[in-house]
Amino acid sequence: MAYNVLIVDDSATTRAIIARTLHIVPAVQLGEVFEASNGQEALEVLDQNWVDMVFADINMPVMDGVAMVEQMAMRKDMERIPVVIVSTEGSETRIEELLRKGVRAYIRKPFTAEQVGQVFREILGDADGF
Question: Which of the four, 12, 37, 65, 70, has the lowest number of CB atoms within 10 Å?
Fold first, then answer.
């Protein structure tokens, strides 16, 4: 099964790095990779496309990652989509707050392909023989 992923970050370079990383992770079969530069754009992408997992930054203009997670939690069609935060911000207080809001994992920038692959497999399981 191929998984559709949404990458949300205000940096096009970071979005490209995450996408490239997902493409090289062993045993991860990607379907479509969608991109958004802020939380509002992400919600619009989610309204129009099936997405299995979201990788999102915290600090973005228009709508930040926290507000995006809160909006997703209030919508029946989005509340169960796993969100992974990928950020340089990493205080324990902030991570705990995000986990309470429903974020499934946190990856600190800079990251490795192994970290991304491990989180992907932990969240989406081993249905495809990960």
Answer: 12
Q: Which two tokens stand for residue 22?
A: 């997902």
Residue-wise pLDDT tens digits, 36-88: 999 999 999 999 999 999 999 999 999 999 999 999 999 999 999 999 999 99
Token couple for 82: 């796993």
CB 75 within 8 A of CB 28: no
SS (H, E, C) the chain: CCEEEEEECCCHHHHHHHHHHHHHCCCCCEEEEEEECCHHHHHHHHHHCCCCEEEECCCCCCCCHHHHHHHHHCCCCCCCCCEEEEECCCCHHHHHHHHHCCCCEEEECCCCHHHHHHHHHHHHCCCCCC
Length of the chain: 130
Distances (CA, A) of 118 to 57, 90, 100: 18, 19, 21
Q: Which amino acid is at 61?
A: P
Rg over alpha carbons for the chain, rounded to the nearest Å, is: 13
